[in-house]
Write a structure and sequence with these properties.
Blueprint (H helix, E strand, L loop, with lengths): L20 H13 L7 E5 L6 H12 L13 H8 L4 E4 L7 H12 L1 E6 L7 E6 L2 E6 L7 H4 L2 E5 L11 H29 L12 H14 L3 H18 L2 H8 L3 E4 L1 H8 L16 H17 L3 E7 L4 E7 L1 H5 L23 H6 L3 H6 L5
């Protein structure tokens, strides 16, 4: 609870570390007061017996009470739409993996999703489903997430509960029945104060979930916490996990890539020239797959200090990629990530690619300009 949160491990209601409590509170308040903005996907991870399902039930009961607070993972897109369109909070219990189709569905639902189907008992009428949802996932380990999903998730690790501190389900329910009215009242009081302060909150920079970051900053102001720093740390950790799981990005990291050119040339440069080498699973088979991989992972790579820029050779009409390893950028000078002598574009991006330096404008701004046909 906002005013009486326990700092000790094994809290029977919400077994999270003290540093993660402002993140969880911000998720709850965002779900209560901001139905129009994208919401981060709250992920509760922990080993067996850390109270993942119990914590998920408690969170759902505070913002969207339901006789069935937890859902089993959907088997396909149709069952996902059926589960998601019927409630404000969708909590998936005991998730063990996130296939690509579910990853896409979760991303769309967090920022605004929809589906069109043929209406039942008709030949041509359509049934339209449009929704944005608050999503809670829990599991021991769901493996590496795709970059676009990782960018929307908020992982919370649950503390291990000692056997001497473990309570029975009946004891947990009795305590919750007794404490829930006070907890909900404290949550509404915090939400009221946050609404009052929110218009004056300013961020030095806006992350992917900018609306949520504003709410988290307001929570920090009210409670004297440092949730924004924790939020940035979690985003960096998720980016590291995502990139380390991709064999092509990992090979780029190992080779300390400093590249400017076509995707086909990058594929040749990164592929080991060793007799008997076999490409691992998910290794790009052609330049088009390299382009797709870089576009999907570019935000996560930039979080870790990579320079990733997509441009175009206007003479030959093909895509040009710039990929510079973080260590190469840091060696440019002692001050700042790219050194004091590195030129920058008007938007603030460093000009590290040869063509960008020559033009004095980064590839992103170059592509945004209006050119005569």
């Amino acid at each position: 609870t906002p005013n009486r949160a326990s700092d000790k491990p094994g809290d029977p209601h919400l077994n999270v570390a003290t540093a993660d409590k402002p993140l969880t509170l911000a998720c709850l308040i965002a779900a209560l007061i901001d139905p129009e903005s994208p919401h981060p996907i709250l992920c509760l991870f922990g080993e067996q017996g850390t109270g993942k399902s119990t914590a998920s039930r408690r969170l759902v009961s505070l913002i969207d009470p339901s006789p069935v607070p937890l859902r089993k993972p959907p088997r396909d897109q149709e069952s996902w739409v059926t589960a998601a369109q019927g409630s404000w909070v969708v909590a998936l219990d005991n998730l063990s993996q996130v296939p690509d189709w579910l990853s896409d569905c979760l991303c769309r639902a967090a920022t605004g999703d929809g589906d069109v189907r043929r209406a039942l008992y008709t030949d041509s009428d359509l049934a339209v489903f449009a929704f944005r949802r608050c999503i809670i996932l829990n599991g021991i380990d769901v493996g590496a997430l795709r970059g676009d999903l990782a960018d929307r998730t908020l992982p919370i690790n649950l503390d291990r509960i000692e056997e001497s501190a473990r309570l029975t389900e009946r004891q947990l329910n009795e305590r919750w029945t007794q404490d829930q009215p006070r907890i909900f009242g404290d949550l509404l009081s915090l939400a009221t104060e946050l609404i009052r302060r929110l218009p004056s909150v300013r961020l030095a920079s806006s992350p992917r979930m900018a609306d949520f970051a504003l709410i988290l900053a307001a929570v920090d102001q009210i409670l004297g916490t440092d949730g924004l720093t924790r939020f940035a740390e979690r985003a960096r950790t998720m980016a590291e996990d995502t990139l380390s799981a991709d064999p092509f990005i990992a090979a780029m990291d190992e080779a300390r890539i400093d590249f400017h050119g076509k995707a086909a040339d990058l594929l040749i440069k990164v592929t080991p020239d060793e007799q008997g080498w076999r490409p691992p699973r998910n290794w790009p088979k052609d330049p088009r797959m390299v382009t797709s991989l870089l576009r999907r992972n570019a935000p996560a790579m930039r979080k870790l200090g990579w320079v990733v820029d997509e441009g175009e050779d206007r003479s030959n009409h093909y895509v040009i990629w710039t990929a510079i390893h973080p260590e190469i950028g840091r060696k440019s000078g002692p001050q700042g990530p790219y050194g004091p002598q590195t030129a920058t574009c008007g938007c603030g991006n460093p000009l590290l690619a040869p063509q960008s330096k020559q033009r004095g404008i980064c590839e992103s701004c170059w592509l945004k300009q209006d050119w005569p046909s």
